User: What shape does this take?
Amino acid sequence: MACEPLRDGEIAALITYLEMREAPATPVPPSPLSLRPMTPPGLDEYRRLFRLVGAPWLWFSRLTRDDAALAAIIRHPDVEIFAVIDANGSEVGILELDFRAPGECELAFIGLVPELAGRGHGRWLLAAALDLAWRKDVRRVHVHTCSLDHPAALSAYRRAGFTAFQRAIERFADPRLAGILPADCAPQVPLVGTLTAAPSPPS
Assistant: This one.
């Protein structure tokens, strides 16, 4: 067994790719939460919700894109984005479905704020996502998770009927050091390196 050192300021994650080839028979359980389509999604609104849900797990990929690049994805006619709404009308999660590949749907982003963890809401959200993902022409639904995500994510996907088919190692610069995410988010991942000034917001 060998250990490969990371460069200063880098993070590594083990990615697991999963898929399902037929729709699950399990119905969507009842929930006090609901899905509200973001049509069309506002860029600032999307970035705010993406940070709210993803910062604890170091989601940052969409935050590095300028307005044009982000809009090309989230406003594409084959991409559907929903905000998860609680009983008080507050946004507490995000669901992004990507149908751009013919015959396929990717659960591009799916998650809830950490305060809702362990209450069964994640099982509802995943079931609701699959109910929306399986359309007439869809023959495959896929998703990927990594070792930086919630510890229960991988088992939740498997329980829902996904099968793992590939793994990979991803190395990337820590987004907290670059000012893309706050330095105090994701405390479960040690911050090793020197902070830099936050980048200017996209124009």
